[in-house]
Amino acid sequence: MPNTPIGGLGHVPVAVYACAATAPLVREAERHARRYAEARHWQVAGAWTDTDPALPLDTRPGWSATAAALSTGIVRGVVVGAASHVAANAQQFAALGVLIRDRGGFLTEATPGPSHHTPGQHERRRALFQASAGWTPGTCLVPRILW
Fold this sequence. Notes:
single chain
């Protein structure tokens, strides 16, 4: 098995799984999960989807293929577009994660990363730009040309 550096980044083969009621929602969830995996330099070894979230997880064909890839060692982890794609609540998602972890894999939800902007950052940058350009706050950014 490949070694994974601290922080979960590295060339780890993963499966992407998405399940939603309509095809456009499935495609969007799959894209979101792929971006999440690729941002961590995980290799997406396969992507499986289902379009009937009402079915029990163990009877869904896409999840069965994902589980088979995990059990045969083709992938080491599963990235889901949202926890609701595989579980009804947080406790079920955690229990499924423990089950997968006990078999040597991992389960993760493609969550959005933290915002790269801090509160008030735009205003501070504008003030710094104005100060560096020689303008004072409250004046026009374009200096008036007097002829």
